[in-house]
Amino acid sequence: MDKLRKVILDVSGFLLVSLVLLLSGCGGGQSKTLYIFNWTYYTPDSVIQKFEKEYGVKVVYDTFASNEEMFAKLKAGGANYDITFPSGDYVSIMIKENMLEKIDKSKLKNFANIDPKVLEQCDFDPGNQYSIPYYLGAAGVAVNKTKVASYEKSWSIFARKDLANRMIMLDDMREVMGDALKYLGYSVNTVDQKQIDEARDLINKVWKPNLLKFDAEAFAKSFAAGEVWVAQGYAESIFAEVDKANWNTVDFFIPKEGGPSYLDSMVILKGSKNKDLALKFIDFIQRPDIYAEFCDYFGFPSTVNVPARALKKGESWYRPEDLLNCELKKDVGADLEKYNAAWQTIRVGK
Amino acid sequence: MKKHTGLLYTMPQILWLLVFFAAPLCIIIAYSFLRKGLYGGVEPQLSLDAYTAMANPNILLVTWRTLKISIIATALTLLIALPCGYSIARSKNQAIRLFLVIVPFWTNFLVRIYAWIAILGNEGFLNDILKALHLTSTGVQFLYNQTAVILVLVYMYLPYAILPLFSTIDKFDFTLLDAARDLGATKFQSYVRVLLPNIKSGLVTAGLFTFVPIFGAYAVPLLVGGKDSYMLGNIIADQLTKTRNWPLASSISMTVTVLTTGLVFLIALRKPREQKQVFDADPLLLQPVQAGKR
Amino acid sequence: MIHTHKKPSALRIALLWKTRRMLRRGGAAAKKFMPARSSLSNVIYWVVIAFLFLPLFVLLFYSFNAGRQTTWQGFSTVWYQKLVMESPELWHAFFNSITIALGSALMATAIGTLAAVGTARYSFKLKNFVSTMSFVPMILPEIVVGVSLLIFFAGVGLRLGLVTVWIAHTTFNLPFVYLLVSARLEESDPSIVEAGRDLGANESQILFRIILPMALPGILSAFLTAVTLSLEDFVITFFVTGPGGTTLPLYIYSMIRFGVSPVINSLSAVMVAGTVLLVYPMRNFLKVFAAH
């Protein structure tokens, strides 16, 4: 058994040494490194590489899957990122929680490229002292045209009993509640208990019986596989999963009643050691050619950057005008509890 | 010297858990007694809100559902894992067989769940086969219900039950089975009366390894569950991420922890008695086997 | 009931013991030539293996699909090309995962095995407390462990990164290792250790030559479990990781919004094939504990 002992010791020794080497290798930070915390691929690799090349710096790009996770993580501190990409409601929360650096807009040559109509909507950060818009969009509805012949471009599609168990909605409280509120003619940010109850009953009694499930993780896959014919969700997810050859069978629309829209912004985090570099990155993103490249990568309309609209080569899944009836989700503060109670009833009940 | 050897062996683990587990645990306990912060975190203000909020009928319903799913899934897992562990223990090449059990689990769980969706879906492999055999024309809805959740949970936690069962069965003296049969027990009786009592610690460990994670399951009910598959793990995660109610998440977790720890403690306290029983296997075997049963 | 049959029982106990002793003397030899008569359990084993591998075959199948959708679009190796040529971030995450998995499994196996030996072989004051408290990290929901560790690391000023991930993974692996090795040691014969001691073995000889070899199947199971748990973990890792510390599950999970790329299918296929190729040449070495 001495042999065995030696083998165990050798193997563990080797592993320990390699571990130490790897860990120390990763610890060595250069001063010219920009730490970005973002949704996966939300900034295409090609854009990141161009930035690295032009400015001779290194970018470390880490990812999160939801605003809430990003916030929970950054709130506790300890993660030293320079830039992150929260949605509007989280920008206001992060400002209140004193987590953001002020942005010196005079250093942003390309700030002028941003659509003033978008800036108007930034009432979560009046005057854009802390945040620069990145992308304005909304979830919509994707329909498999080979299976569903006629339909109205409205949220009422989820009330159709003939499509029961062939439809899916996001497992996202604010999104689905917002759709119902908009359908009923209310604001997506209402704090009126009666309106919230009405929306809850609409979802619970009229929509939910026809839904296969609520899903924010695999809805696009289910749609692409033909499992569901109608999916509420993000265009970019749907078209990422559906093969190009079948794109013509998919209709993506933002319902005429509108719904909650989101405005993701770029912010610089308190404690950033590379504020100048972070500003350069933000400015770089708003450069028309770069912004067009970003939009083309996802099939986004150029909702934020005006000159980029002319430079875009690819098609878009929806037009900036489609968002006219949409309303930005805002932080509702303590009234979030009302939404939570309604959503729990929807999700938990049979 | 000898008196302290045991403590010495245990010291690294005690220290590690004290620093990296007990300290964070104290934070959670403290959080559960504080008022929730508007944007996550807590306000430095004592409150029992988090505990009174637990009496919510929704949470009770979900707890009951979670308990039901966990018990069924654990029982199924153990039932399947037991013969597997036995087969590995009796095999000539144990290590290879062990690896075969564990290797599928080195690919990402999300990817494996997607694979299950591709197998069980309405347009999936299984339905394709059924359609080709003309057993169904419209496809069978396998996914998005509690049965699918249980199936995938059993799949996910099988290895964690097989491994402890293998390592205790491996130590079992198989000649005892022959002895029992020589003494007139049937094959089945010899397994139930002789093997099972001797591998109790393995069974308990396997049960814990499956029940505990399944009870906190989060991703599986979300991905393959339907409208009726929300589990306690989802509620806790929602409190932390969606509604930013950290105290409520803490209080639910604390309650679960205290209850489960109490259960484990009871099992641990019973242990000394069990060990004595090991050798007299089971009273039934020692009785003359009833004529009718043979 | 039992009382009425007391006499025959005693006789049977004696018989049982005698048979057992006799057969035991045969030892390993007896075990070896005994035919594996448990054909049913073997059948179940292979059915279970098929069940466990089923999703992997699906992945393998799709990894050669020309399209990315879950319907067959023709044979292609495009995803393998992308895996090799265009996925530096993915490989970075992959190596982070492997490092953390091996590192944390090793640490947890070392600490946990020692503790299991301590509680199984010796008695001391805090023994019951230690063994019960070692389970608790298993019980807490992952997300709670993740958030509390994050708050803790931030509080003590530890920089988030691979080191904090390693600490967190070691922590959640510990109870599994401890329980697995304990279960193995629990019912083994204490007289062997006594015999060793009587023959003049010192503490380290007893540990390395008697106890550890005896616990080896348990230790191997523990190590494998720890590696697996670490490779799987998403929730805790998300909270305790820092800049540059993205692991494979994090990478894959955060792809969800824009679709999980089939490159992951090809990576999975490569990983399984790689593991099998690594393990197969070692099969003779791995037989080591079937023989003792």
Large-scale geometry of chain A? globular
Oligomer: heterotrimer
- The CATH class label of the domain at 87-261 in chain C is Mainly Alpha
Number of helices, where a helix is a run of at least 4 consecutive DSSP H or I residues of chain C: 15
Count the beta strands of chain C.
Answer: 0
Name the poorly predicted regions of chain C. 1-36
Low-confidence region ranges of chain A: 21-30
In CATH, the topology of the domain at 87-261 in chain C is named: MetI-like fold
Radius of gyration of chain C: 25 Å
Determine the most extensive contact between two protein chains: B-C, 117 and 123 residues
| Apparent shape of chain C | globular
Mean pLDDT of chain C: 79
Q: Which whole number gives the mean pLDDT of chain A? A: 88
Q: What distance separates the N and C termini of chain C?
A: 42 Å
CATH homologous superfamily annotation of the largest domain in chain A:
Periplasmic binding protein-like II
Tally of individual domains of chain A = 2
Explain what you see:
The complex is a heterotrimer of chains A (350), B (294) and C (292). Chain A has helices spanning 2-27, 45-55, 67-75, 88-96, 116-120, 173-183, 193-207, 219-224, 235-241, 275-285, 288-298, 308-311, 336-348, and strands at residues 33-39, 58-64, 83-84, 131-138, 140-144, 167-169, 211-214, 230-233, 250-253, 260-268, 327-328. Chain A has 350 residues and is of the alpha/beta class. The longest helix of chain A has 26 residues, at 2-27. Chain B has 294 residues and is an all-alpha fold. Chain B has 14 helices and two strands, in the order H-E-E-H-H-H-H-H-H-H-H-H-H-H-H-H. The radius of gyration of chain B is 24 Å and the shape is globular. Chain C has a domain at 87-261: MetI-like fold. In chain C, helix 3 crosses helix 13 and helix 8 packs across helix 10. The relative contact order of chain C is 0.12. The chains are: A alpha/beta (350), B mainly alpha (294), C mainly alpha (292). The interface between B and C is large, with 117 and 123 residues.
